[in-house]
Amino acid sequence: MIILGLNSHHADSSACILKDGKLLAAVEEERFNRIKHWAGFPALSIQHCLDVAGCTLDDVDYIALNRDPKANIFKKIKYILQKKPNLKFILNRLRNRKDVLSVPELFEKHFEFKTPLDKKIQFIEHHLSHLASSYYVSGFDSAALLSVDGLGDFSSTKLAIGEKDSINTLASVHFPHSLGLFYTAMTQFLGYMHYGEEYKVMGLSSYGNPIYLKEMKDIVRLTDDGLFELNLDYFLHHSEGMVMSYEGGSPDIGRVFSDKWYEVFGSDAKDNLEKQQDIAASCQKMYEEALFHLLNKLHAYTKNDTLCLSGGCGYNSVANGKICQNTPFRNIYIQPASGDSGGAIGAAYVVHKKHAADKSTFLMNHAYWGPEYSEEDVSEVINRNKSELEQNNVQIVNCRTNDELCEKVAKHIASGCVIGWYQGHSEWGPRALGNRSILADPRRTDMKELLNAKIKRRESYRPFAPSIKRESVEDYFQFDNDVPFMQQVFPIKEDKRESIPAVTHVDGSGRLQTVSKANNALYWNLLDSFEKETGVPILLNTSFNENEPIGCTPGEALDCFLRTRMDVLVLGHYYLRKRERGTS
Question: Residue 583 contacts by C-beta under 8 Å, 6 or more apart in sequence?
């Protein structure tokens, strides 16, 4: 059985494909069209998935979409009748419904096929897709499940229990109450108006003190049933609708916060960095209290110490790293694309569980599900750009073995070089996890500034992440856990912080990625080579991009290398190094 999973007409549009319950490919549309957070129909991702599976749409048994216009329909009607929101709110809801239902027409526009799609397309409720996206690839036979995001299908939060092949809902939080929208409102209030900038505020929060927590508790009110409500005086989405446009495919959310924020926090926050930091710290603290409130209720429901977390709020790695210390949960799984893009996988697995005779699934223990390009592709890109490489005095070496490559790269990282590292399949989700990464020496106190000057050009307060050999975690971090997808922040041991300042955040923490030899042997070998060179089994790892989607093709990697001050580019076994004029 072949199932195509989609996240369409929602931010981070994506596609995946399953064959007999096994994931073959998963990729976000932005990797192909280079428009960050693309929110339209994922035509290029669909074609890639079909190519990987070696099939056409006629061979696909089901198409699973992680939205269901019929979900919570009576709650929607009741809300409109009782609250009487303005006309713009109703028109926004109708337009959103129309976009989701237009998917069959868009298949006809972009693809050729003979068999009708009417019975193939399955609409799966948004938060069920989120829950399934984590649980059905976690390897657990049972788990407590939590999905938390902005909004999807008129819900923002779902608590559930997963038992073998089934997911049963225990409680939900519906529109207009949402922790995701609370965080978005605060993000916008601080002046970050672009879609998806909440992670910037999460980084900023470590610099402040939660002195506004009392005010935050008036905005988010924890309820006795283990859930929460928003004080709607602080918001606009419940009356005017959540205005999201997709002009050019890039999502844009209209203002969510009301003028009440100015009344409470003043109008100077955008121009007062210290105040920004304290508001961010207070918001983060409020989110954490609400999350632990939900999780403790979930544990009381399930009596299960194993947790699968999903939804866009699953990217709040600072809160995720504190779950075991603030709740009874001891085993945590968060898949690499916990947000909307991951819903494509969840929807596909819900359909698989419903229709397949053999309902077995698998463990997603790595994130390398995107496109891969051959050594021949790399050679062709290098040869096509030979003239420009010569003009830039780039030395090109084809390393014969992985050991030679890793030893060479480790020495140059240790000498202060910034490395573009391009290998194998691209990562699924927003994190670079050792296949589309920029790497540097974590021991250098000036490395953050160097990276921002050479390539990243991003806010100085944002931390860079450490990749670490799995077997070395207990030597450097206060907690020894598997974190393969960079979804949790842990405190770094005090006696190690001075040795790795470039990846130690202001609060002494690091958003680690644990690397095992079984799941990425080449990247593990590079970490091992760097340890042999320096005594440190850690590299600074950031995404291979320059204020754009992570590079997908060898050509995009080479373009980024040439237009920035990156020192070395590793494309497969090819080693490209910029030399000073007059050197050999």
Answer: none
Torsions phi, psi for 524 (to 5 deg): -60, -40
| Model confidence pLDDT, tens digit, residues 178-187 | 999 999 999 9
Residue 37: DSSP 8-state: T
Domain boundaries along the sequence of the chain: 2-132+343-355, 138-334, 375-578
Question: CB neighbours of 554 closer than 8 A, spacing ≥ 6?
Answer: 373, 377, 378, 381, 422, 571, 572
What separation, in Å, do the N-terminal and C-terminal C-alpha atoms of the chain show?
A: 57
Q: Measured between alpha carbons, how far is residue 188 from residues 9, 38, 242 in Å? A: 22, 20, 14
Helix (H, G, I), strand (E, B) or coil at 60: coil
Mean pLDDT to the nearest integer, 367-389? 97
462: number of Cβ within 10 Å: 16
Q: What is the mean predicted confidence (pLDDT) over 541-564?
A: 96
- 282, 213 contact by CB (below 8 A): yes
Distance of CA 376 to the CA centre of its chain: 31
CATH number, domain 138-334: 3.30.420.40
Tallying the residues shown for the chain, one arrives at: 584
Q: Give CA–CA dist 44/552, Å, rounded.
A: 13
Q: Is omega for the bond preceding 176 within 30 degrees of 0, making it cis? A: yes
Q: Does pLDDT of 94 surpass 80?
A: no
Which helix (H) or strand (E) covers residue 143, if one does?
A: strand 142-152
Cα(453)–Cα(20) distance, rounded to whole angstroms? 48
Q: How far is CA 381 from the centre of its chain?
A: 29
Cα–Cα distance, 50 to 311 (Å, whole number): 26
Q: What angle do CA 342, 119, 344 make, to 5 degrees?
A: 5
Domains 138-334 and 375-578 share a fold: no
∠ CA 156-28-99, rounded to 5°: 55
CB-based contact 547:458 (threshold 8 Å):
yes
The DSSP annotation for 243-272 comes to: -EE-GGG--EEPP-B-THHHHHH-S-GGG-
Q: What one-character DSSP code corresponds to residue 459?
A: -
Could you give the angle at the alpha carbon of 230 between the alpha carbons of 311 and 90, nearest 5°?
80
Closest to 110 (Cα-Cα) out of 34, 201, 48: 48
The tokens describing 69, both together, are: 């216009």
The answer to whether 548 and 30 are in contact (CB under 8 A) is no
d(CA 478, CA 475): 8
Q: Which pLDDT band holds residue 89 (cuts at 50, 70, 90)?
A: low
Give the span between the Cα atoms of 437 and 551, in whole angstroms: 9
When the candidates are 3.30.470.10, 3.40.1350.10, 3.40.390.10, 3.30.420.40, the CATH number that belongs to 2-132+343-355 is 3.30.420.40
Angstrom distance (rounded) from CA 334 to CA 374: 30
3-state secondary structure 327-340: CCCCEEECCCCCCH
Tell me which residue of 125, 151, 157 sits closest to 346, measured CA to CA: 125
Domain over 375-578 is classified CATH 3.90.870.20: yes
Alpha-helix runs per DSSP H in 303-416: 317-320, 323-326, 343-355, 375-384, 386-391, 402-414
Q: Give one word for 578, left, alpha or beta, with left for phi > 0 and alpha for psi -120 to 50.
A: beta
Per-residue tokens: 427: 């990562």
**Mean of the per-residue pLDDT values of the chain:** 93
